[in-house]
User: Fold this.
Amino acid sequence: MPVLKFSEFSRALGKGELAPVYYFHGPEDLLKEERAALVLEAALDPGSREFNFEQRSATDLDAESLHTLLQTLPMFGGRRVIFLRAVEALKKKPRVREALLTELGRPNPDAVVVLFETAPDEGEGSRKREPDPDLIRLAASVVADRLLPEEAVEWLRRRAQQAGVRFAEGAAEHLARAVDYELGTLRTELEKFSALGGDTAVTVERVGDLIGVRQGETATDWRDAVLEDDTARALALLGPVLEQSGNSGVKLVSLLGTGLAGLAVARARLDRGERAQSLPSALIQVLRAVRPFGVTNWNEETARWARCAPRWPQPRIRRAFRSALAADRALKGTRISDERGVVTDLVLELGGTAEWREGGKRLRSPASRSAQTVAGA
Assistant:
């Protein structure tokens, strides 16, 4: 069965072309829900949903009940729509999984089945979950990847218009950046703005007041200061950033690690003779291939990596990775309680106020000593 881009999926629905089975997978559960709602809207009129729409969790089914769910005929003609959630759990229920694959191989012509694979939570680590190849084979597959920053802002604007919320210039961008373009959090914050009411456009300052994150004081602003060798600013931002809901020392180190990885790629290409002018576009191609978590605006990120790479020779990058790993371990250690102290030490260790020479030797400069003074102030 085809793997559909969202544009292809939407276009087919607009033409009334429904697949017998859809398989929604990927890291963005909210997008899966939105796309499933489009299937339901295209397949059933509102009056028939009470009788011909059913949703169940795969964890609650055995082989017999699964067969009944998928093969029951619709009431009053037409078709049925079945949402089957948490299909990834069937890997631990091989008999039910085998029954599902059998049913999908002979789909009910009077039903549309939507399979949901739940995105892994943070407790499962950052390793990407691969889609189920059997479900890819038997269903029209639609991947719900995290949106790019500009796509997330556009998504926010559409939802705001539906909710009757107007954003002043820069306010939607600031809100999206402040929550790391996470759609579930954006939806929650938008509900708060909607509840406040009023006809006045939401300004950048009002966003900052309501979510507790001022413009220029996000986790990514802190990370950018570290990569750009602005040690004093990185230290000044550390307190406000750590005080924000959802931020932690572990999150900051993880975000920094992604930035260091981008710098490593940029520096490696420079060392292989890549021209500085063509480096950002080459890095964009890398991002399209791997789509790493934690990379926000691709154009801004790649331009920053290209700009910073000359100041980050490979020995310095390797040392930075070792320092970040040591900080991550310290932050996750049960005996460490001062996360701000751990991250402060990391910022000073990575500080670009130090002079680097080929071969990885570092010479402290007066600026580096002044940065340490700022940290102790």
Remarks:
- The radius of gyration is 25 Å.
- The chain has three domains: 3-143, 149-211, 219-376.
- Residues 3-143 form a domain with the Rossmann fold fold (CATH 3.40.50.300).
- The first strand starts at residue 3 and ends at 4.
